[in-house]
Amino acid sequence: MWVVRKNEIAVKNRKWSCVAVMMATLLFVGCGGQSKQKTESEMNTDSTNVASDQIQMQKDSMLATLTLDGMKVTWIRDNAQARLMPRTLFPDASDALIDSLSLQNGVPASISTFLVEKDGIRMLFDTGMGAPDSQLLEELKALHISPEDINYLFITHFHGDHIGGMMKNDSVFFPRAEVYASQVEYDAWMKMPAEQKAQVEKTMKAYKNHLHLFAFGDTLPGNIVAMNAVGHTPGHTVFQVGKLLVIGDLFHGAALQVIHPEICAQYDMDKKGAIKSRKYYLQYARENGLTIAGMHLPVPAFMK
Question: Which among 46, 130, 135, 286 could bridge 165 via Cys, Cβ 3.0 to 4.6 Å?
Fold first, then answer.
């Protein structure tokens, strides 16, 4: 644990609250406000400015790269169309709060994966939906990377929009990748009803010869630390690699939840745990100067 004086924490919290308000103002004006509706390209520019001035956004708004701590980090957008999380996904948020942030039409988000290239190794964090219109394969092609070129898969949790891209029909999609997932997550899903765990069971069985189950706190290949972020799912994991923090589904609506981390999305299986994890890692990232990569953050899914 770190030690920070109370006045330092207060200053940092105010700074991050201001950043969150900027996100809400810049990204979502026009979603019920008085100004005109912004294009996604305009929203990309706004969120890029908030996240980091080092991000290089591709024109198609599907890829963005940054160099961080001696590694190349590439955001890959899996969703083909612009994505809004519906207001109904956040029942704990009051109408007054939603109105004040101009989020009545929904909260801009994404379905994202992150490719980290370090010391000649390619590591992919989550794999998107694997839907007919998913963009992961096409964007890997744009980077001149084939599925066979991926050395490691690190899975934050077992929801379908994170493991769906691991399979192509009934075959593994990343045949040479070693797969790392939480032992706690695996055990919990294996105890769920058959219809609920069907995709997980099929996928993990297909990768059984390459599957490695870790404990929280383990250091994995690439010097990646697996960290306890339970709440969204029983074994939800945050990964830290250098100054990058891959947070999975800590946020489903950043413009709302960065300011109010106590607000959960309906997808959170354990609300109390999800709130605790969200607050903890917001503070942890602030105090350690980390760049956050989130699977449902708005384009380009980086935040600092």
Answer: 130
Which tokens go with 267? 């997808």
Asked which of 36-45, 71-80, 87-96, 216-225 is least confident by mean pLDDT, the reply is 36-45
Tokens 């935040």 appear where?
A: 303
Strands 244-246 and 291-293: parallel
pLDDT at 46: 42
Per-residue pLDDT at 39 exceeds 70: no
Q: How confident is the model at residue 138, as a pLDDT?
A: 96
258 inside domain: yes
Q: Is residue 1 part of a domain?
A: no
Cα-Cα end-to-end distance for the chain: 21
Tokens of 79: 């969703």
Specify the higher pLDDT residue, 15 or 155: 155
Q: How far apart are CA 87 and CA 107, in angstroms?
A: 7
Full residue range of the structural domain in which residue 146 is found: 6-303
Q: What is d(CA 151, CA 101) in angstroms, rounded to the nearest whole number? A: 42
DSSP code for 147: G
Alpha-carbon distance of 96 to 88, in angstroms, equals 14
Query: Which CATH number do you get for residue 294?
Result: 3.60.15.10
Task: Give the pLDDT confidence score for residue 54 in this predicted structure.
Answer: 74
In a domain, residue 121? The reply is yes
66 Cβ contact partners less than 8 Å away, ≥ 6 residues apart: 52, 54, 55, 56, 72, 73, 291, 302
CB 160 within 8 A of CB 129: yes
**Count of structural domains, the chain:** 1
Q: How many Cβ atoms are within 10 Å of 3's Cβ, its own excluded?
A: 6
C-alpha to C-alpha distance for 140 and 149, rounded to whole angstroms: 10
Q: DSSP class of residue 116?
A: E
